[in-house]
Design brief:
The protein has 99 residues and is mainly α. The chain is built from four helices and no strands. The radius of gyration is 22 Å and the shape is elongated. The chain starts with 7 loop residues before the first helix and ends with a helix. 0% of the residues are buried.
């Protein structure tokens, strides 16, 4: 869901970071280097530092309840818009009736 709030440029940067990190992970696997979750966390932090990115050190400022409320509001807006629009199936049906 967080990606819905990113601008195109931010999303591109996120995709590039993920791709680079997955390439690193594949190299680790090809070298048959055993890695535990704690190792991956440390490597990810090192990777982010190397790419001069900030590392999140806390759980955020928004409570779970507030996040749920916001998500539900956003979904209602999306759902209302979607219900108001004619679906491709409905358009095809109306076009066939016209013919």
């Amino acid at each position: 869901m967080a990606k819905n709030y990113l601008r195109a440029e931010e999303l591109d940067v996120l995709n590039r970071i993920v791709t680079a990190y997955l390439e690193f992970a594949e190299l680790q696997a090809r070298n048959r280097k055993p890695m535990h979750m704690q190792d991956w966390i440390a490597k990810l932090d090192d990777f982010l530092r190397l790419s001069e990115r900030d590392i999140l050190t806390h759980g955020g400022k928004i409570s779970h309840e507030t996040a749920i409320e916001l998500a539900e509001q956003q979904y209602e807006q999306f759902r209302s818009k979607e219900l108001a629009e004619t679906s491709p199936v409905e358009r095809d049906f109306f076009n066939s009736l016209k013919r």
